[in-house]
Amino acid sequence: MNERDPRLDRLAPRLRERTRRVGGGEGGAGEFVLYWMRAALRGHENPALEVAADLAAAAGRPLLVYQGLDERYPHASDRHHVFVLEGAREVAAELGGRGIAHVFHLARPGHRAPRLRELAARAASVVTEDVPVAPLRGWTRSLAARSPAPVYAVDAACVLPMALGGGAPARAFAFREATAAARNARVPADWPEITGPGDPPPRLPFAPIDLATADLGELVAACGIDHSVPSVSHTPGGSGAGYARWAAFRDGGLRDYARRRGDPTRLEGTSRLSPYLHLGMVSPFRIAREARARGGEGAEKFLDELLLWRELAWTWCFHQDDPDAWTALPEWARATLDDHRDDPRPRLLDRETLERARTGDALWDLAQLSLLRQGELHNAVRMTWGKAFLGWSATPELALARAIDLNHRYALDGRDPASYGGLLWCSGLFDRPFAPEAPVRGALRPRETADHAARLDLAAYRRVVARDAGAPVRIAVIGAGIAGLAAARVLRDQGLDVVVLDKGRGPGGRTSSRRGESGAIDHGAQQFRVRDPRFARAVAAWRETGLVVPWDATVHRFPAGGVPSAVPMRGRFLPQPRMSALAAHLARDLVVRTGVRVEGIARAAGRWSLAAADGEDLGDFDRVLVTAPADQARALLAPVAPDLAGRLAAITYAPCLAVMSRLRRATDPEFAALLADSGPLRWAAREDLKPGRGGEPRWILHGGPDWSREAFKRPAEEIIATLEGELRERLGGATLEVESRDLHRWRFALVETPLGEEALFDSGLGLGYAGDGCLGPRLEAAWLSGVALAGRVLAARAAAGGPEEQGELF
Prior knowledge:
Layout: H1 6-9, H2 13-16, E1 19-24, E2 32-36, H3 47-59, E3 63-69, H4 78-97, E4 101-106, H5 115-120, E5 123-129, H6 136-146, E6 150-154, H7 172-186, H8 216-222, H9 239-252, H10 257-260, H11 274-278, H12 284-294, H13 297-318, H14 331-339, H15 351-355, H16 362-374, H17 379-387, H18 389-392, H19 396-410, H20 417-425, H21 449-454, H22 458-465, E7 474-478, H23 482-493, E8 497-501, E9 528-529, H24 533-544, E10 548-558, E11 565-575, H25 580-586, E12 591-593, E13 598-604, E14 607-612, E15 617-621, E16 623-626, H26 630-637, H27 642-647, E17 652-663, E18 673-676, E19 681-686, E20 698-703, H28 705-711, H29 716-730, E21 738-753, E22 760-762, E23 767-769, H30 772-775, H31 779-799
Parallel strand pairs: 2-3, 2-5, 3-4, 5-6, 7-8, 7-16, 8-12, 10-18, 16-23
Antiparallel strand pairs: 1-6, 9-11, 10-11, 13-14, 14-15, 17-20, 17-21, 18-19, 19-20, 22-23
Helix pairs in contact: 4-8, 7-13, 12-13, 13-20, 16-17, 16-22, 19-20, 23-31
């Protein structure tokens, strides 16, 4: 394409060989040349920036560097967002010092318009980095298909441009032989500094974020991303941190790299530069030059990893339509795995067990914890970690998908072409068959966790995974509903000491179930829906183990003043075997104390002390998170945090009167559930007809909000008689032979006025609030709120300068 575009003919040969046109129109005059920066977050030694600057100079137009961070990229989380924002802050300052206009847009509520598309429509040319993996490749193609201006992709990552690698490489030795001379010739090259005229940004369709003054933590908290994956304090984003890490390794570890690189117990044994190379915060050209200048066995081995194996993976991805696909693996690898597809697996593990490092395999769990908490995984361990999925997954396709998902979700160098090189190597990429064949893995290279563990000092590796321990932190979560349990679980998974306190007989809150001889009755929440993709991922994991199942039912709808009709209810889920099973599952690895009513919170010696209603001293805590209904939370927080308590005053609830009626014998209604728009009865369902319930026939009846509010303090007999009478009427006068009945008064059943924020946390006080009162009357809303509150606690912990890690890893 290059020779067909006269714009590229003006570029120097070293830039022209890196640049290709990927689409777009011919454009008109345009207001500026737009550099869409996303994977080379640096203002120096950046070929994409240089191409954009040269095109701007040739066209006589200003240069605008645009960075945008969306909420919808795969695996979007606090960890990845914070790393990008910290890097963006540095690159904005660097470009400002060079007189180059830079603007940053962060997608979040109220700021989700397609700003890149709007700017591209006004550009003379659009330049971006050539990154051959999803989602950046797809986004580039999408922009090129819409842009009236030509769109160029520039290789800013490889010393030898990917397009010159000679096609998709199959083996490392062949790639080395074919490309060594061309690559070595380019290693010594210097890159000029790029400066601009200092022009201000053009008129913009949005107010860019001032990264120099912005509170990055608050910005990230506002984004609809996964808040359960926290930032990593010891690996801040930005060129400064990246080059500091490189300098320490260059001067202290490079010489012994060949000898120490395979030992995960020695942090100084590797450069740990992969996160900074992944987002281009450090120049691979500078790293290669300086390593070559040092010389020696260590430097040569390091350059082999940097220039051969890294660029091997980049070049391979460049020639693949979809590196994630099973079909991207070599034919021999797919064939041998297919031959052993039906072999019995040693164990089939669900995704949640894997993700939370609960497999029981000591080395593998430590490796996963390193990802989960540290955001990194030593390369030698990653290979063993990646191969273990085959024995724990039902199919080889699922094994590969799980390895990719967990790596990209937690590793700061995830979603990088080099990641695919390492992950797919575990399934045969760049490798050869090994004899004899074995069950499950076939002819793939063996790499057993037990064998690897036998060569390691696991105690030393455990200390590495648990490093950066600071002063102990203890957290109390008041309320064992879904919000409280979700928050506690995220914090526990990050190694913090968490105690959950609840006044009920068991965890669950409004997802509790009332048990009896004839079977349990879900007398609170009846089912839940999935709307948010973050919650959808959790529900998919629960479905995998059978914890929740779909409930597609026919509901008889009674509209006010209208004709009743049967309406299908789709997209609902039920925990099994009762609603409270979900809370029990979330609480399984937690310390939960029930039957404890927290009466007061007081400050003493820099910590929070909690007292129970019976006078028991519940202990001292560094953080207290309240997830009880807002009215109860206000009463606890008002004496110690009046501003925080005041925010909760906006939350209002409607009550619900719930009647549980157990029948002597079943009637056979035309429907298993009904929903009425008027009258005292709002909802009724045959509990025994729900999926997985069974048992003796029994109804759960819920009063409507207005009637429940008016009748809340009436005698139980009157409430029960009214609701059962309504049910008989809705059933056409059917006789209900009731064996026994119970009443539960839910005072805070349904959020009517939510706060409109995911969670509240005062980092100075160490106090926070979460619950469905934040986002609305849905189980999903409670879960999202609890996770968001945990995310804010973890973000404040990272911002304070390091984790306050507890002693135990599990």
